[in-house]
Amino acid sequence: MASETLRNFLQLNGYAMERVSRGHKMVEVFGPKGPTKGECMREIVPEFYEKHASLIMACGDDVTDETMFTALPYCHADSLLSVKVGNGKSHAKYRVQNPTELRRLLKILHYTIATRTSSSA
């Protein structure tokens, strides 16, 4: 019922329904010309990477994150990781089962990068 009400509201206000993405317990509504997460990644990542050559990691647990995962290969940066948190189809290169596993992965990456940085100094 709430979903139908939201759909009617959006259509009455001129939102193209292809700009509405339903996720886990949420709905993401893009403005008529608003960017997706993927479009933002394509614009921001190359500029950031050029100034701060580093590891760039995109993590997400929802269908709304998929545009971000599919955009990463086009961002022209060498060190990119995409991680899907949880189940479901995904374009992410890697997957962890839950936020606890993601935190564990982040700690490992932080330790590895910190160790390499201090040993090369």
Overview in brief:
With about 120 residues, this protein is an alpha/beta fold. About 45% of the residues lie in helices and about 20% in strands.
How would you describe what is shown here?
17% of the residues are buried. The chain folds into two domains: 1-33, no CATH class; 35-120, Rossmann fold (3-Layer(aba) Sandwich). The termini are far apart. By secondary structure, the protein is an alpha/beta fold. The longest helix has 22 residues, at 99-120. A three-stranded parallel sheet has the order 3-4-5. Strands 1-2 form a two-stranded antiparallel ribbon. It is built from four helices and five strands; from the N terminus they run αββαβαββα. Helices cover 45% and strands 18% of the residues. A hairpin with a 2-residue loop joins strand 1 (20-23) and strand 2 (26-29).
Topology at a glance:
Blueprint: H1 2-12, E1 20-23, E2 26-29, H2 37-51, E3 56-60, H3 66-71, E4 80-85, E5 94-96, H4 99-120
Q: Order of strands in the sheet with the most strands?
A: 3-4-5
The topology string of helices and strands comes to HEEHEHEEH
The overall number of domains is 2
What share of residues are in beta strands?
15-25%
Second CATH tier, the architecture of the largest domain: 3-Layer(aba) Sandwich
Q: How many β strands by DSSP? A: 5
Structural class: alpha/beta
Could you tell me how far the N terminus lies from the C terminus, measured between alpha carbons in angstroms?
A: 60 Å
